[in-house]
Design goal:
mainly alpha, about 60% helix, two-stranded antiparallel sheet, 28 helices, Neurolysin, domain 3, Butyryl-CoA Dehydrogenase, subunit A, domain 3
């Protein structure tokens, strides 16, 4: 989930975990067998573990009590933090966390309800009302993190020698990263109070617009999510028809999406300027507890490897499909001779649980809770968020998973991915509300590792050489979508925000930037026509969590290196891995990876991860053909 804004002490931390971008968990349909016959109905979540309903007396009581507690907290501590001893400061942080968690529970409930049905006007009104109330309740607390950051370094270091305060060292350490960028309390208060009519309002407009859009295909009115699902259809004509219909819908709405994008980029530019961040991605990197230079090294490593990764693979894919050039609707086309079988929910559950339990029984037990209890919402429906996420809510409750299960192999991988997040969130909850959240650079570790476990278990069980090749090709597509595509997304955002500083961008210019970065990343096998220029519009990360996307590439390369350590028979790997997840946000990536002999600051680290993907492509080249014979167009 996105990290909290450093200046806004409450509610922001409870923002929903970002959805998985389109195709970040992609795999060929050959990966899994199984049938949907006799399958259980797809599960829906039950949010009553948070609150019984929108009119719940418990919700009203929590907000009222939190408001009173926040005012009392400010009266007790504002202007006095420098006078507290270790025990007094520790007690203040603990009380702050308690109030923050109450607000986080309310924010989680409203956000999850809205994600489940953003077309319902009553839910939209409730969601906005809760957000406004949370802003009102939390405003008296703004002083706290600001005043903590005004404490003298030496004085604070002395206080932290006392065990009473030592527990909060990770919270204070991460908070003080933002010390050079915080503004006066008066300015922070104004920005906080206006947030509900600023960026969050534009984000809501995006969500509601996207939920209400309908794509007409074969006489049916499909949601955007259902239409996008057809881009993986075996029939090339179906893929092309879906792509053109989606493009037409986006084109009709591109001025609105451009306005949202321009406004949010300008809003970010203003905030970054006030806080003196050197560039658009710097605030995100600070939240991820990673230096700009480390992200630059990752981006450089991936972009310089485009030719040996995505370019090389898609040339092969075009050959397998019998095409001279691939169009954008061919990118996720099933490979020839894939068995286009649907995977029932029960089969998906068995595959994923088996992979987690086979690696570490403790992780399998935690994963089973999500299936045995109503913690997953998997059924596609109108108004529901088209993406996927795992949201941790608060330590006193439990995470919830949202996804849209269509019975394809990529949905099974998405399930494995989101369960990884959920398991991580359950284990990290012991760190408490303020320190359980993991920086984005590590937030994707458990999810991508879970995908790798699931894939490896299935690959090891497959004895047919042709199917193994197809499975390997599916994994390569998965990794390209997770690494190459997400870095291309990051470069699109970077160029867009950089250019926006010179003035508002027309839709045509935004589309041109999109096509340029996609052409660069996908390579010469593709013919990207102008109708693809509007496909930037539906990626939710650009709206909800700018510059989030590189975390997927970070996580994938990290997992590749980590999995290599596991396969090498590293002693006690499973126990060390579980402890890494338990740490939540209390340790930085250097500390967490040290027990495995890894260092993400080492320039060779990224090459090590990318070599795994390149090696898979080497295997595919050596094992051609993938089908016997290739079927033109899939």
């Amino acid at each position: 989930m996105p990290s909290a804004a450093h200046a806004a002490p409450t509610a922001t931390r409870a923002a929903l975990g970002a959805p998985v971008p389109e195709s970040s968990s992609m795999a060929s349909a050959a990966v899994l067998g199984g049938s949907s016959s006799g399958a259980s109905a797809l599960p829906s979540w039950d949010l009553s573990d948070l609150y019984a309903g929108q009119d719940s007396p418990a919700l009203a009581r929590d907000l009222d009590e939190a408001e009173a507690a926040a005012r009392a907290f400010a009266g007790r501590y504002a202007g006095r933090l420098a006078t507290l001893d270790s025990a007094g400061l520790a007690a203040a942080i603990a009380e702050y966390e308690r109030i923050d968690a109450v607000l986080g529970r309310a924010a989680s409930y409203a956000g999850l309800l809205f994600a489940g049905d953003s077309e319902d006007a009553a839910i939209g009104r409730f969601y906005q009302g809760v957000n406004e109330r949370l802003t009102q309740v939390s405003t008296p607390l703004i002083f706290f993190t600001l005043e903590l950051n005004q404490l003298d370094d030496d004085a604070l270091a002395g206080l932290q020698r006392d065990p009473a305060l030592a527990r909060w060292q990770p919270f204070l350490r991460d908070l003080r990263v933002f010390r050079p960028h915080q503004l006066s309390e008066e300015v922070e208060r104004v920005l906080h109070e206006k947030s509900v009519t600023g960026a969050s309002a534009w984000s809501r407009l995006f969500d509601e617009t996207m939920a209400q859009l309908r794509v007409e295909l074969d006489g049916a009115q499909l949601t955007v999510g259902d239409a996008l699902n057809r881009l993986s259809d075996r029939d090339r004509a179906v893929r092309e028809g879906a792509a053109r219909a989606i493009g037409e819908v986006f084109a009709r709405n591109v001025r609105l999406f451009s306005l949202i994008t321009n406004t949010l980029a300008k809003d970010k530019e203003i905030g970054d300027g006030l806080r003196q961040y050197p560039r658009p991605g710097s605030a995100r990197n600070r939240g991820n507890m990673v230096e700009d230079e480390v992200v630059d090294a990752l981006v450089t490593a991936v972009t310089s490897d485009y030719e040996r990764l995505s370019h090389r693979y898609y040339v092969m894919k075009a050959r397998w499909l019998g095409l001279e050039k691939l169009e954008h609707w061919d990118r996720n086309a099933p490979l020839p001779a894939d068995e286009d079988r649907r995977i029932g929910w029960d089969d998906a559950r068995a595959h994923v649980l088996g992979a987690y339990a086979g690696f570490a029984p403790e992780l399998g037990d935690i994963a089973r809770h999500f299936f045995d209890r109503p913690w997953i919402d998997a059924a596609p429906r109108p108004g529901k968020s088209p993406g996927a996420f795992a949201h941790p809510t608060v330590p006193a409750a439990h995470p919830y998973i949202l996804m849209n299960y269509h019975g394809r192999a990529r949905d099974v991988m998405t399930l494995a991915h989101e369960l990884g997040h959920g398991i991580h969130q359950v284990l990290a909850a012991d760190q408490g509300y303020l320190m359980s959240s993991t920086p984005l650079t590590l937030a994707e570790t458990a999810s991508v590792f879970g995908e790798m476990l699931t894939f490896r278990a299935l690959l090891d069980a497959e004895i047919d050489p042709a199917r193994r090749r197809r499975m390997l090709a599916g994994k390569v597509e998965d990794m390209i979508n997770t690494v190459v595509r997400q870095i291309a997304f990051y470069r699109f955002e970077t160029r867009l925000h950089d250019e926006r500083r010179g003035g508002e961008l027309l839709p045509e210019r935004i589309g041109a930037i999109w096509r340029e970065v996609q052409t660069e990343s996908l390579g010469p096998a593709f013919n990207l026509s102008p109708d693809y220029d509007v496909f930037w519009a539906y990626v939710p990360h650009f709206v909800h969590s700018p510059f989030y996307v590189y975390a997927y590439a970070f996580g994938d390369c990290l997992v590749n290196a980590l999995y290599g350590v596991f396969e090498s028979g590293h002693p006690g790997f499973q126990a060390k891995y579980v402890e890494m997840l338990r740490a939540g946000g209390t340790k930085r990536h250097r500390e967490l990876l040290a027990p495995f002999g890894l260092d993400a600051s080492d320039p060779s680290f990224w090459r090590r991860g990318l070599d795994v993907l390149s090696g898979f492509i080497d295997e595919l080249e050596a094992a051609e053909p993938v089908s016997e014979p290739a079927m033109a167009g899939g």
